[in-house]
Every structure is written in C-alpha cells, then in structure tokens.
Amino acid sequence: MKEDLILKYFPNLTDEQKSQFAALDALYHDWNAKINVISRKDIDNLYEHHVLHSLGIAEIINFKDGTKIMDLGTGGGFPGIPLAIMFPNVQFLLVDSVRKKLTVCDEVIKNIGLKNVQTRWCRAEEVKEKFDFVVSRAVMPLIDLVKLVRKNISQKQQNGLPNGLICLKGGELEHEVLPVKNSSVITLLSDYFEEEYFETKRVVFTHL
Q: CA-to-CA distance for 206 and 202, rounded, in angstroms?
C-alpha cells in the first residue's frame, strides 16, 4: 500500500495515525479532481512528494506537546496536515489566501478526524497571534518570509530547537540563505530519505 512509505520511516505510529495517513490517498484524489491543489501528473506521487516530504520536518524536530505552529501558504494542507497527524498534541493553524484550497484542507481535516487543526483564509500580514514555529513549503524567498513572520514568533521557548521558521525548499539555496545566513541551518533530506526525489530537497531552519 502507498502509505507503507510513511511506515518505512516512521514505524511507531498508532493505529489511528496509520488509518489517518491511509485515508489521505482517496481524499486527495477525490478533492483534487474538483479543486486542483496538487498537479494532476503528481497526484499519484502523493505520499512521496507531499506527505513524506512534509514529514521531513519531523526528522529534524520532535515538537513538544502544546507547541503552536502556523503553516503559511498551506495550499492543499502541506506540510500542516501530515505534521498534525504526526503530532496530535500540537496545535496547527493553516493559512492560505486562496479560499478554495482551504476547502480541500477543511474536508480532509474533517474526514480523518483531526482535532488539532484550524484553517484561516487570509494573508500572512493579517495573522496577529504568536507561534513557536512557522512552517512553509517554498512559498516565497526566505528573506521575504522572515520579514513577514518575524512578528508571529513567540519569545517563550519550549522545544529542543529555538523558535523560528522551518521551510521545505528545493534546489540551490546558497544565495537565498545569504541574507539570513547567520541564523539559518540547512538539512539535506537525502540524509533521512533514500528516494531519489529527496536528493535536491532541503529543510531550512531559521532562528527568529
């Protein structure tokens, strides 16, 4: 089964987590046919290119219970929904400026019974709350994202990593991280996942 790819790297999932991950395949295929949040040619790679990619963040940090996270520019719910399954005692706010994308998120959240996720249709500038971390998947250049979310990072620390921004990025990042180099750490996902897709994928953590 396709979701076995998740178990390959995260073997200690509960039965509920296993069933939630397994349910994503049919839900995203169904909703993606109505509202395109994943490219048509990529939907069959859902678990590798989207779910496991999102969980790359879980390889660099084990969020403590009670942590608050904003997923900015969540699109169809990545990385927020896979992370919310993985960390059921962590609170997630999924933000996107495109309302129909959040319709897909809301349906997936409801159907798999996630209780730790809220969605909000707005722009990043409109979010005033504080979070331990902001996570994002390649929505804009790193320096622009840093400027946008700095106001949302809480000063109260409770995790192994200091509070900040965690981005999933691909390709050559040396120039992109230069303006924030002193506070950014790049982790290669190929160090954790053996699939060829991850050879060019990175997790960039920026302390804010």
A: 13
